[in-house]
Amino acid sequence: MTRMKLIAAGALALVALLGLPGVAAAKKHGSKSHKHGARPATARDRNHDGLPDKWEKKNHLSLKVNQANRDQDKDGLNNKGEFESGTNPRNPDTNGNGVNDAADDADGDGVDNLNEVDEGTDPTVSDTNADGTPDGAEDSDGDGVTNGDEQSAGSDPADATDDGSGDVSGDTGDGSGSTGDTPGSGTGDGTGDTTGDTSGDNTGDTHGDTPPSGGGDHHGEPHGDG
């Protein structure tokens, strides 16, 4: 009886030993499976403003409010633009070259950081879409004027209706208005004054004063004396 118990105990121990690797493998596999199914690591953004918390902390920006459109250093480039340009949101002239970060051209493509952010190109890459044409020579809004030329003209490279011609047309319109004033003033004064004085005064003096004076003296006095 004792011998049978020993055999049974040995068999159970053998089964247990054989099952351990499988259990361990299952646990190991489950661990990998969980890790594989986890969300990929991304930059944390607790205030959902499009700026990574790590970048905001580094630049002493609050994580409690949206910082994207704020401009703490008053350089004309908001924090979202500073992040995309690789500039310091607390320093208006990050590289100290005398040009504020908004007007600076970090990638040297002929378009400043502010306009690159506005037109959706990368301020740190000279050829954002890698088509062999620098961003300054591209025409982002398809109006026939390059981004660089629009910047020089002061128009918006992201707005096809703003190509710089609107201001010129406006000035021409003012010129036409001035022309309209000249004919009205000159013609009206000249005709009214000259005609009125000549016809009224000269005619009245000649026919009104002369006949009564001459006729009265000539015909009245001789009859009275006779």
Task: Give an overview of the whole structure.
The protein has about 230 residues and is mainly α. About 55% of the residues lie in helices and about 0% in strands. Mean pLDDT is about 75; it is low at about 20-40 and about 165-225.
- Count of helical segments? 6
Beta content comes to under 5%
Shape field: elongated
Element string (H = helix, E = strand): HHHHHH
Map the helices and strands.
Elements: H1 2-37, H2 53-58, H3 79-85, H4 113-119, H5 147-153, H6 165-225
The gist of it:
The chain has 6 helices and no strands. The protein is an all-alpha fold and 226 residues long.
Keywords:
226 residues; disordered C terminus; mainly alpha
